[in-house]
Amino acid sequence: MSEPRKKICMLVATPLTIHFFLKPHLMALSKNHDVTLMVNLKSDSYVLPLGLPIDIIDIGISRKMAPISDLICLVKLFFLFRKAKYDLLITVVPKAGLLGMLAGVVARIPQRLHIFQGEVWAHLDGFSRKFFKTCDWITATLATDVLAVSQSEKQFLIRQGVILPDKISVIGKGSIGGVDIERFSNGLSLRKKVRSDLKIPEDAVALIFLGRLVRDKGIYQLVTAFKNIAKFDRRLWLLLIGPDEELEFDNLCLGNLAVQSVRAPFTANPEVYLAASDILVLPSFREGFGVVIIEAAAMGLPSIGSNIYGISDAIIDQETGLLFECGSSAQLQYCIQSLLDSKNLRARMGAAAYRNAKENFKSNEVVAGYVSHISNLLK
């Protein structure tokens, strides 16, 4: 007789996390295990249905702090966990990690894996830093196994005393899902059409930001740097692609941008906009691993990013792109100007970025590493 299938539960806050990072993992795990996803389906309503061959439970978990609803969610999780008797709980993002691990311990789920993917307190200070750092410490302490999505994030968590070195590891060279090299490199054939549709001149140099439009992503520093260059140089265009989650950016900033800009909401096909671009920029204040950087790299684009843990794993400074001091609009502006002024530099760094993505971050190899690690926890 074959052994019964082990039961896995993954808990995340929003469908966006699954859509961008974890669909291939859940597909692969469902082949040999009974998999349940718990997620707030009312969040990120613009995301297309996930279409996964697994059980999905709508749970009222939010990304931000909400003490009363968080407590209600914690109680619901406990009863769901106790009833289902899962063999393994996987949590991703801070809120899911804290609530999931608390409920998982009380419900006696034997294996509990948390995946750190960027710390909200990394650039904070005072009480806020201590509070959120303590929450992550609790998550790491209650988990039986912990992964970080980059080596620099792992070392950061160890230095900060959040976790002991022997309890945390990184799969391969990092990232949570790698990049589909074929999908993104094929997007290059779209360049002429997309530029025409977006009314971007063929001789323009297009700078692209792909992701959630929130302060933590350095959006305001990016807009400042772009404006300072664009008012003197009509070659530079800016593409801002992603949802305005704080519901303030479009109102406060977008109307004041130079005419050479493109704004689009969430897209399920980032390769379309990357095809029209020349440089990716990610000026985040915190990042576990800049997945969008290796997606751009798969299309031969160099990147500019904050010199912080996570991004420094995805960009090899002066080789596949440029790093600048986090929060410095002036340094960001200098990096943009450097790549704007040198087509040869863009080409050289873009070629190096492509090689790095192909050699180290193929999605099938990264996902296989995660699936193997998770399956080993169930043996």
Protein described:
44% of the residues lie in helices and 16% in strands. The chain is an alpha/beta fold and 379 residues long. The strands form 2 sheets. Strands 3-2-1-4-5-6-7 form a 7-stranded parallel β-sheet, sandwiched between helices. Strand 9 (236-241), helix 9 (249-252) and strand 10 (261-264) form a beta-alpha-beta unit. The protein is globular and about 60 Å long. The relative contact order is 0.12.
What attributes characterize this protein structure?
379 residues; 6-stranded parallel sheet; 7-stranded parallel sheet; single chain; alpha/beta
Figure out the total of helices.
15
What gyration radius follows from the Cα positions, in whole Å?
21 Å
- Taken as a percent bin, the fraction of beta residues is 15-25%
Largest sheet: 7 strands, parallel
Q: Assign a percent range to the helix content.
A: 40-55%
Structural class: alpha/beta
Kindly summarize this structure in a few lines.
Helices cover 44% and strands 16% of the residues. It is an alpha/beta fold and 379 residues long.
